[in-house]
Each structure stands twice: as structure tokens, then as C-alpha cells.
Amino acid sequence: MMNGNELVRAVRGPIILITIGTLFALDHFTPWGFQQTWPVILIVIGLLTLVGRATRSGPTAGGVA
Amino acid sequence: MTRRSLTGPLILILIGVAFLTRNMWQEVPLFQWIAQYWPFLLIGWGALRLVEVLIEMARSKPLPSGGLSGGEVALIILLCIVGSGMYAADRHGLHLPPFGNTSLEVFGEENDYRTSAQKSAPGKVHVVFENLRGNVRVNGSDEPVVKVDEHKMIRAFNKNDADQADRQSPLEIVTDGDRIVVRTNQDKVSHARRISCDLEVSVPRAAAIEGRGTSGDYDVTDVAGGIDITSGNSGVRLNNIGGSAKVDLQRSDIVRAVDVKGDVDIEGRGNDIELENIAGQVTVNGSYSGTLQFKNLAKPLHLESRNTDLKVEKVPGTITMDLGEFTGTNLVGPVRLITRSKDIHLEDFTQSLELETERGDIELKPGKMPVAKIDARSRSGNIDLELPESAKFELRATTNRGEVQNEYGSPLEAVTEGEGAKLKGKVGEGAVLTITTDRGSVTVKKS
């Protein structure tokens, strides 16, 4: 049986990859340098983790111990 | 059955295509392409994996956790490091020797051939040079003739091969409509053979010159017509040109133009640019990693590169700039300079100045009266302003984190605000000088 959590885990790598690629492309073709935009990667990882927790089945979803 | 991703074979195909391009079309600036566009490889890779995951899901197969294997992660990190390195090298003008470009002929012997040709060309003529490799030197003369002396160099293992290549590439001067075409026919010789032709050319003074090639310098002196040069790897030197000059080079060590009556338009990438005594407009568009020098430009200058946007109405004095520094003296405004990271020194400018740098110190000495309107901003760097004793102005200087130093004295007044400070004041009725730095000190003094 497929669940949302499994899907989020599976797309995590590709989405982070696309984010990094986009930030480098922005660095090359717009004035937004990678040294300015890198925190976006942290935000994306954080969001993915949040979405993963929200979709996790069972009552254990919650904050950090 | 184990699932296999498509990315492995696709990467292999991409690498193959890259090397093939390098070997078949040596003129393609592959290094620059990869250096600039490699981030899209990551995006494409990620998109591909995303599609794979969605397909797996649609087929109700178990999904891979994490989406990327350890090997892939290592490869991605390697790609980021190598890509960033290539990008930095490309931006700073370092170029690795092109791989796959060294043919066996390097070990052969060089054979020289000399020949010359000429054709009468009365009146105004348009002379076109089709010389793939080799230097072209053109001089305007009073004779109504196009005269070419050719020095051909062919690398080959034996004399017979070289002789054959020489016969395959005769020097030609042909009339094509209203143009006279000087052709060295290097493209008729087998690709592997290394051949290059240096041309010494004399043309009627009224001629216009058009040059095409992949490598070799162009040197043009005393010509009254326009100049149009497009080349791969080249240096261009123009001297005493009556018309406009357009130079488009993929890579140049130098573009120098002195005494040009028309407009000068430079495009491409390279190291140094030197322009002096230009009567027309000057447009520079591209990326240059060496020193750029502009002296005595009678009409507007517009320079646009990846990190710098410069507009100046006239340059009676000089502008010198390189990757880290910009110095301008005696400029007619409005002047507008937007740049990423440079120390900026500007002296004697008129009308108005709009200045923005992300990182770098700014030093301004508006010596000419009335003082130009100034709007200068640095995200991180100190700003020094030196005003003439008799100047009339209204100053609004701000640092958001740093201190202000009032060496001008009254009526300027400094106020500390949080981590930053302001310096304000009005001397007579004059232009507004707005100076802002986010991080750094502001100093105002009398000259």
C-alpha cells in the first residue's frame, strides 16, 4: 500500500537536486549569487521534512524530542 | 528484478556527445558552455528522477527511499565542485588547453610557402578576408590596388603532404558583387592538417574591411571605411580608422582602437580593451577579465558585462577598470555605474552620478563646479567624499552599520543612530548628494 510519507521520501533527493541546480543557474544568469541564496536549500529540506512528518501514518508525528 | 535508473546511461551519452563535439567542431566554445550551463544538468537530473518516482508510483511499485543513491550524491558533489571551478576559471579568463585538440601533426615539420596576388580596385571598395587561421595585417595606401603577400605555414610529416596541402589552398582575390574577397581556402585542406596563413595586405585608403576567421590577429591601419571583424580567438588592433568599427570575438587577448572617427562596437569575451580618441559612440558588451582602458571618447560610452553596467556621456579624461578596481577621471555625466564588487575612485565628474556596488570602497572627488548630483551606494564598503571648499550642496550620508567622520566641519552634523550614523547638512543651494553604505564608514572632507 502506497502512502504519502513514502512518496515524500522518494522525491526528497530529486527536489533538493533541482533546487541546487536552480540556485547555481540563478548565480550564473542573474545577480542573485549562490552565496546569498544557499539558505533556500535548508528551507527546502526543512519543508520536505515537515511535509514528510505531516503525512506520516500513526500518532507519532510531532516535534523533536 | 532491480530497477535501473536512466540517469547513468544518459550521463554517459552526454559525455560522449561533449567529447565528440570537441573533436569534430573544434571552434565550439565547449568549455564556456559547460562552465555556464552545468546547473541545468542538475535540474534535468532531478526532474528525471522525479518523473521516475512518479512512474513507479503509478505502477504501484515500492518507492526508493531518499530518491538518490550514495554514488549519485558523490557524483553530484563532484559535479558542483568541478562546475563551480570551471565557471570561476571561465569568468576570470583562464582557459584550460582544449582537450582532444592536439592532432598528430604537432609532431610534424613546419613548411613555409610564400606567394602574393593583387587586383585593381578603383574607388570605394569593400574587402572581405576569409582566412580561418593566421594573422592579417591591413594598411591603407594611395594605390587603387588590393595587394596581398601570403606566408603560409603547413605542418606535415613529409614535404609531399605539405606541397599537396599548399596546392589545395591557393590564395585567391575574387570580385563578388561589390566586394573583393581575399580567400586563403584553408577549408579545402583536410581537417587534420595544421595550416595557417599570415597576410600582409595593402588596400586603397577608402576601403571598408570585413574579416572572418577562427584564430589569428587583425591589425588594420589607415583605412577610411568601416571595419567589421568576427573571429574566434583573436587580438584586434585598429589605428586611424575613418568609419565605424564592429568587433565580435569569442576570445581576445586584446582589442585596441586608436583614432576612430565612427562608432566602436565590441562584443564577446577576452582580456584587455584599449580605446583612445574615439569620435563616435562606444558600446562594449561581453566579459573581459583584463584591464579596460578608455581615453578621450567624444560620445557616450556604454559598457555591459556580467558584473558591471556603465554609462558615461563623454570621457574627455580616462577610465581604467579591471576585475577589482574602477578608476575614472574627468568624466562628463550623467554617469551611471552599477557593479558587483569593485573599489571605485572617481574624480572630476559633472552632471550627475549614480553609483552602486555590492562590495567595495568608494572614493569620490567631484572637483568640478557646480558639484554633480550624487547617488552612491555600497552594500559593504567605506565611502570617502572629498568636496571642494567653495562647493554648494546638500549632503545626506548614511551608514547602517559603521561610523561617520566629519572632517568637513560645520555646517555638517553627525548623528549616531543605533549601530549606524548619519551625516547631514546644507551648504548654499546645490545638488543633493546621497551617500549610503549598509556596512562601512562614511568620511566627508574638504579638498
Summarize the SSE layout with pairings.
The complex is a heterodimer of chains A (65) and B (447).
Chain A: H1 4-29, H2 34-37, H3 39-54
Helix pairs in contact in A: 1-3
Chain B: H1 7-24, H2 30-37, H3 39-58, H4 70-91, E1 109-120, E2 126-130, E3 136-141, E4 145-156, H5 159-168, E5 172-176, E6 179-183, E7 194-204, E8 208-215, E9 218-223, E10 227-241, E11 245-260, E12 264-278, E13 282-288, E14 292-297, E15 301-304, E16 308-321, E17 325-341, E18 343-349, E19 352-359, E20 362-365, E21 373-380, E22 383-387, E23 393-399, E24 404-406, E25 413-417, E26 420-427, E27 431-439, E28 442-446
Parallel strand pairs in B: 2-6, 2-8, 3-7, 3-9, 8-10, 9-10, 10-11, 11-12, 12-13, 12-14, 13-15, 17-18, 17-19, 18-20, 19-21, 20-22, 21-27, 22-28, 23-27, 24-28
Antiparallel strand pairs in B: 1-4, 4-7, 5-6, 14-16, 15-16, 16-17, 23-26, 25-26
Plain-language structure description:
The complex is a heterodimer of chains A (65) and B (447). Chain A is mainly α and 65 residues long. Chain A has one domain (4-54). Chain A has helices at 4-29, 34-37, 39-54. Chain A starts with a helix and ends in an 11-residue tail after the last helix. Chain B has 3 domains: 7-91, no CATH class; 103-225, no CATH class; 307-447, no CATH class. Chain B has a 5-stranded mixed β-barrel. In chain B, a hairpin with a 2-residue loop joins strand 25 and strand 26. Chain B is flat and about 85 Å long. The model of chain B is unreliable at 96-105 (pLDDT under 50). Classes of the chains: A mainly alpha (65), B alpha/beta (447). Chains A and B meet through helix 1 of A and helix 3 and helix 4 of B.
